[in-house]
Structure formats: C-alpha cells, structure tokens
Design a protein that fits this description.
By secondary structure, this protein is α/β, with parallel strands linked by helices. Helix content is 37%, strand content 18%.
Length: 252
C-alpha cells in the first residue's frame, strides 16, 4: 500500500481484526456480483469503498424508472441504460482505483466457468431460484465462497456457502432444485425500499469477513430478517447427504 491507501483505508487499518494485512487482502480480492438491482446496488458500493480493486458485475437488464425507488446505484438519467454500465460508472467514481468488469449477459454455466477461477468470493444478488441454483452449483464446482441474499415485500434472507468446508451445506441443501417454488417478484408483490439495502449491505459485510477472515460468517445458517418489526432470526441448515450439488455422489 502507498501513503494514499494508508490514509484512505485508515479506519479499517485501525481495527485490530483487519489492520494492514487484512486491508491488503481486500485490495487483492476479486469479487463477482451477479445482479445489479436492489441487492447489488447496496452491496457493490461498500465492496468498492472498502478497497476491493476488481469487481465483476453481471446483469443483462436495463434501468427502469420503477427501479429507482430502491436501486441506489442508478440515477434518474440512468433510465434506459444497461445496469452494469450505470453501476460501473458509479462505482469507479466512488473509488478510482477500482476496475469494474461489466458483463451484459445472463448468468450461465459457461459464463461462470469463465469468471469464477479468479474469484475470491461471489455475491448472488439475483431474484429467481433458477439463477440462484446455477450460481450455487458453479461456486461449489470452483470452490468459491458464495454469499446469497434475497428480499421481497418486507422479508429478507441471507446465507453463506463455503465449498471448502465439506461438512457444510450449500444452497441446494436448503432449497432442493427439484422442488417447485412459487416465484414472487417485486413487480407484482412490491418491496420495502430499505430492505434491499439491509440485506445487500449485510452481503457486503459477509463478503469482507470472508476475504479478511474475520469472525464467524453465516455458513450453515439462514438469517431471516423481518422488516416490519426489525427482528432477525437465524436457523441452522443441515447438509443433505443426497444433495445433487454438494454431496459425495454429486456430479458437480
């Protein structure tokens, strides 16, 4: 780190749990964020501000006026622009030492295979089970930690998948891929504006904890946030012996 870095990140360096060594880990990290909507808009700026030098931002959508109620990475004059390009502009203005790789594609197995080999951690900021399962399988395959978040109406969820821990569950242990779930979307169900900020910033915090190695993450746990009453509940997740993704007999 140079003198400018020492000053810019001094409040991190003052923390015994981070210090210079931890901040150097943050600077060297590559964070992949899938989804540049509400959750991604909350998580990505804190990842950038913390000092991560490379962010890969993946989203195929464009900014819509209805997004601006909660997707704080985008502005009114961003309407009609690709979300990854709008996000790239905002993040690189926030931290000029950051490089944002903007990928305007849907997440696919091929894309994940291209991106994940150099990733330190992945943030799943998407809004549907199909994509979440795809990202989970790719992270298990490439042994990259995953921070998965979800938010709808007033309710949020957060969990961490650590493929390096053989005895810990993955996302498919919690939500089996062969089960049918009713997809609910903000466009029909609504979402409380600060909710995506709460869950998204918690995703950023979990990612930074993983990068530096601070404390205990939500690996093997599901955090449920009740935005109506400002209450959190954490439940344990058991690893499924027959999980098609992370069990000993899986083909991933």
């Amino acid at each position: 780190m140079n003198d400018q870095d020492l000053l810019r990140y001094s409040r991190h360096i003052l923390l015994d749990e981070i210090g210079i060594e931890g901040q150097e880990k943050i600077l060297a990290a590559h964070v992949v964020i899938v989804g540049a909507g509400g959750l991604g808009s909350a998580a990505a700026p804190y990842i950038a501000a913390a000092g991560v030098r490379k962010i890969t931002l993946i989203d195929h959508d464009v900014v819509d006026l209805t997004n601006l109620q909660r997707q704080i990475m985008h502005r009114t004059d961003s309407v009609g622009l690709l979300k990854v390009n709008s996000g790239k502009t905002m993040l690189e203005q926030l931290n000029p030492d950051l490089t944002v790789e903007a990928i305007t594609e849907k997440a696919t197995h091929v894309l994940m295979d291209q991106v994940l080999p150099t990733a330190t951690v992945v943030l799943d900021c998407t809004d549907n089970f199909t994509t979440r399962h795809l990202i989970n399988a790719a992270c298990v395959k490439h042994k990259v930690p995953l921070v998965s978040g979800a938010a709808i109406r007033f309710d949020g969820q957060l969990t961490v998948v650590d493929p390096h821990a053989n005895n810990q569950p993955c996302y498919a242990c919690l939500f089996p891929p062969d089960q049918q779930f009713n997809e609910v979307q903000c466009s029909t169900m609504g979402v409380f504006s600060p909710l995506v900020g709460i869950i998204g910033t918690m995703q950023a915090a979990q990612a930074l904890q993983i990068i530096v190695g601070i404390g205990k993450t939500l690996t093997g746990q599901l955090l449920l946030w009740d935005g109506r009453n400002s209450k959190a509940e954490t439940i344990q997740i058991e690893k499924r012996k027959d999980c098609p993704v992370c069990s000993a007999n899986s083909k991933v």
